[in-house]
């Protein structure tokens, strides 16, 4: 690549259609954060309906009424149940596919992997740019679907047929949007794998890779191999909806009292198999990069090597492999035979082991450490019990017998939100606070950061803990009235108000973070910012400026001499020994 | 690459082409053959898939050069095939209550 | 700094970047067509009879009629695979003219395949055997249609490498040869999928 041209790059080539992985990483980051905010806003409106069913939503009631009317639903400023279903389906879809994954893989992965392995860029820079824009288009398609008659997709983020087959036009847009998002994901993950395998700097052997890079490698393999069956399923559902096929429509289906005029012979279970074949590995896609981020931060802020590096690596790889063999634990109630049930229960119990090993390694890493309680470390510390709760509450769900009682209740929502909300989001926040000075050359304000952490931690628990109580009482998920019309729910309805206030206070708790971002970005950068304010050992901190140099990242190619967590090495003057130090 | 190496490759490609044509003829022929067993359809399916697998192997090993490919690629493909098998077979085995003789 | 191993291979893996990239892509394609085949297996084993009987009856007699067309298509695609690898061989032998001939034949074979497919499709549709007719037709059109889209994509790429893309042969011949190898791998995969689709859809009924 000839470097002479980049000085004359125009605005479009430099910032919009850039092939530089750092610019693309930031593009992913900004877009994904906007979608996260949007997805969270949907939930805040839903939580009003759950706390005060069929009353007008304050502040945004006018907007809700306008949207409901546009979609063809009656509303006086309240959230009608049809629109509740739309918001529910799209909240899940947006948070997972437009928010978290683009952030942890597209933003963090793209930005940091080349830097941490000492590479000048990703292996395929143009493909990288393409994968961002395909993601962007997918996001636009999903966004536009809100304004269609009947609204956006409303059959849950899981889009089960037959309901999704006969749902309104928004579902077709969802499918088209997913095709774009899956394509973007495939292109991006192939790029990451080739980059990690082929572009490691001299001396960067496999066992000297930061755990963050390992986590991105395993995650990318999951994305490459698990997404295509969902793409196949999406194509089948599009065929059902657009060409009237019956891939998922069984014979004799009656809708609204009338037999459906289709050939039949299809299987709704087929969708569930193809969907969950992706969606289970997908949850490990959600958590693994976060674990990678935390390994960096914990080691750095305990001034010790991370405990059990090899265990972490083997656990991550084993976890990735096993994730393909557990999908039917989402389908325990579909009439599966005993042998199947036993098989999937067993694999599910086995897969909990590597997760526990990883959490344990992190906790053991604290022992004897010189812990620095800065904002990234606080989020890392807060993550541990949260992920522990999320993991433990998954156990009764993974066993088929208790799952009979708990399936499709609020218990499930509580479980997965503990792993995904404090699980992935705390890791993301930790990563943003940690790497912000590398990306911008400026540190985020610590006091605002700590405020952000403490209140987020408090209110996260306020939103999600009561869900276990409601779920154990039998309150089903996806009920627009929060269970109010069910006798068995009456004893736990009071938690709806508590959870809703916690959600709104959680939103307010994000204001210090947003304010922090704005004032720090607007602050003038110092002349020569410290490239390594955290005194870290990994290549992105030690061998390049903050922000890193334009095309190429490094003045000269780094040469690696040791592992990534050489903190407090006996006999050394400093309490950290960079990977590339001679 | 020297011409001598290439001519060895070229004759290999020609031979594989012939085997593939024979395989195609066999596949078509087998579909008309009445297997003299209780489930003739299963027999035809088995033979058809076996021949297709052999043809597929010939294409992959020779045209795609897998028989001389680097380990990294082979491992990735092995992983893919291993993960493919549950996807192909688990849904069909859904109703099994017991594995084994009891 | 330039991105290394675009052309030369990396010592420990023995690969250049694009070769690893295309095999990863093909791995994802294996899973994609695997998902499609999994659907076929599930829907077929769950059906009381196969092919199912729809509004216009059973597709069986028409299937038997189209076996010669599909067989011809199979042979054409196998031939195109041979000419594709010969195109790469020609570049290894530094013979750009032979390359153009072989690649040209490959593209022509692909177009012939599509033309035969077009006649197959229109004949079936004319008889009322559209995708919504029964699950066999749904699978047939979806699987062969997706395969056909892959053929079209391949034609676009190969046409580029036959036409405007050939300029790279003058400036970076080794990199261009690698491109043909990578495109060839994709093309062989498309042939491989057809090798399985052909008996599954046309013969095993």
Helix content of chain B: over 70%
Cross-sheet strand order for the largest sheet of chain C: 1-2
Quaternary organization: heterotrimer
* Low-pLDDT windows of residues of chain B: none
Look at the helices and sheets of chain C and give the structural class.
mainly alpha
Mean pLDDT of chain B: 85
Q: H/E series of chain B, N to C?
A: HHH
Q: Specify the overall morphology of chain B.
A: flat
Number of domains of chain C: 1
The tally of beta strands of chain B, per DSSP, is: 0
Q: Which percent range describes the beta-strand content of chain C?
A: under 5%
Major sheet attributes of chain B? none
The CATH topology of chain C comes to Four Helix Bundle (Hemerythrin (Met), subunit A)
The number of distinct helices of chain C, counting runs of at least 4 residues, comes to 6
Q: What share of residues of chain C is helical?
A: over 70%
The radius of gyration computed from the alpha-carbon positions of chain B, rounded to a whole number of angstroms, is: 19 Å
Can you walk me through this structure?
The complex is a heterotrimer of chains A (582), B (102) and C (205). With 582 residues, chain A is mainly α. Helices cover 64% and strands 1% of the residues of chain A. Chain A has a domain at 118-249 and 266-525: Cytochrome C Oxidase, Chain A (Up-down Bundle), CATH 1.20.210. In chain A, helix 12 (375-398) packs parallel to helix 15. Chain B is mainly alpha-helical and 102 residues long. Chain B has a domain at 3-69. Chain B is built from 3 helices and no strands. Chain B is flat. The model of chain B has no long low-confidence stretch (mean pLDDT 85). The model of chain C has no long low-confidence stretch (mean pLDDT 94). Chain C has 205 residues and is mainly α. In chain C, helix 1 runs parallel beside helix 6, helix 2 runs antiparallel to helix 3 and helix 2 runs antiparallel to helix 6. Chain C starts with 16 loop residues before the first helix and ends with a helix. The chains are: A mainly alpha (582), B mainly alpha (102), C mainly alpha (205). Chains in contact: A-B, A-C, B-C.
